[in-house]
Write a structure and sequence with these properties.
about 220 residues; alpha+beta; five-stranded mixed beta sheet; two-stranded antiparallel sheet; 7 strands; about 55% helix
């Protein structure tokens, strides 16, 4: 089987999976709506919780199909402009509670489509912000720096948050592992897969109560 045929079959399976999952989800939502009119206030609260979980399942399926489609994309991204755009929502949301220090060259282009880089980077920054907010509510620091090494952009994102235990560091990139109460443990694993897909790598290093550094390597254009 040729690579193109393989990618097409994966995309078709993802679309089929989404279709098969969304059909019973839609039916379940309709039946929940019918039941709500006949329930007590306490039961309605339970139904509301069930509805939230069903919406969450739908979001997971949507993300999966988006990522599968993205694996067929090719392209390049101008990095400095991308970083400024990527961190703006976090700066707006957290204002003075998180300080971003960005040190990147102005003329760097990496060999990865913007959408794929966006998924990787959003997961990394989101985790850094949450780590900082959990341990340093007064003001956290997140640094973003780039070094060019043998045709690779070595992108480091470090924070002064709660850090990682040895166990957490070993498991951080494994699918399903999470330290968050509402987490699914897929963000960093998906980021790792995308980095590898475009010829790069993703590593994480941290010390308990002493921050964390995520290193993303991507080929330069």
């Amino acid at each position: 089987m040729r690579t193109g045929d393989y990618e097409l079959s994966i995309s078709e399976m993802a679309a089929a999976l989404a279709h098969e999952v969304r059909n019973p989800l839609g039916l379940a939502m309709v039946n929940i709506g019918v039941l709500e009119g006949e329930l007590t206030a306490a039961d309605k609260a339970r139904i509301s919780s069930i509805r939230s979980e069903l919406y969450r399942i739908n979001e997971i399926v949507s993300k999966f199909t988006d990522i599968v489609s993205m694996l067929k994309e090719h392209g390049e991204t101008e990095f400095r402009g991308f970083v400024d755009e990527a961190i703006t929502p976090f700066i707006t949301a957290y204002n003075s509670r998180v300080n971003f220090n960005v040190f990147t060259p102005n003329n760097l282009t990496v060999k990865i489509p913007k959408n794929a880089l966006g998924i990787i980077f959003n997961n990394i920054i989101k985790n850094a912000v949450e780590a900082v907010m959990d341990s340093k509510p007064e003001c956290g620091e997140i640094g973003i720096s780039v070094e060019i090494v043998q045709e690779m952009a070595v992108i480091c994102v470090n924070d002064n948050g709660k850090g990682l235990s040895v166990y957490e560091m070993e498991k951080a990139l494994i699918s399903g592992f999470t330290t968050k109460k509402s987490g699914m443990g897929v963000g960093l694993h998906v980021s790792l897969l995308l980095a590898k897909r475009y010829g790069g790598s993703l590593d994480i290093y941290g010390e308990e109560n002493n921050g964390c550094t995520v290193t993303l390597k991507i080929p330069i254009a």
